[in-house]
Amino acid sequence: MFVGHYAAALAAKAAEPRAPLWTYVAGCQLLDIGWSSLLMGGVEKMRIDPALPGSPLDLYYMPFTHSLPAALAWSAAATVVSKPALKLPWSASLMIGAVVFSHWIADFLVHRPDLELFPHGAKVGLGFWNFPLPEMALEMGLVAITGAAWTARRKAQGLSAWPAVAFLTVLTAVQILSSMLGGSSGSPDPMATGAMALGVYLIITLVAVFVDRGRRQPA
């Protein structure tokens, strides 16, 4: 799952608008931001296997970002750090932490068994990645539903709907490009793969900063 992760960010912004959108957007991909950084450093590992159905990614070693204990730790850290750093109420900080953990839940649905339940332990994943068209429909459906909820919240606050439309358009374009590139074969350099992924996550976060024109409500 890629763009589908952002559905959690949009749902969170609709439910708890006091946190900036960029915190939810970065939060929903925080595990992958960490993964791409560790991939570039050679700490976590991946390879391309064109024989795999659907996504050719074989994510065979990522215990520091995508194991269940790691996901819980990243989520707790995001909760604890965001409150004093951004002067948020606890409800908003807890929502950021929940969005961070949503990444692991979504990955459990789509990944093949590559998510460790504990260090060097059993790996889980339902493998919806093996069915690319239904998986893409699921991602885009989640984004559409949560995007509509965020748009409705903005309108209820007396804010323009165009930023939500613009952000959803960016996500749709990224999903199309990701699908086109995801089927390519070969053995990409992990450094290049990590750098490209990190660049995309950061660019989308910057877009979120730009489109989030609503002011945070006081705690």
Q: How would you describe this protein?
A:
- The chain is mainly α.
- The chain has one domain (3-210).
- The chain is 63% helix and 6% strand.
- The protein is built from 8 helices and 4 strands; from the N terminus they run αααββααββααα.
- The chain has a two-stranded antiparallel ribbon with strand order 1-2.
- Strand 3 and strand 4 (123-124) form a beta hairpin.
- Helix 1 (6-15) runs parallel beside helix 6, helix 3 runs antiparallel to helix 8 (190-211) and helix 4 (68-86) runs antiparallel to helix 5.
- The longest helix has 25 residues, at 132-156.
- It is globular.
- Residues 183-187 have low confidence and may be disordered.
Describe, in short, the structure shown:
By secondary structure, the chain is mostly helical. It is built from 8 helices and 4 strands. The chain starts with 5 loop residues before the first helix and ends in an 8-residue tail after the last helix.
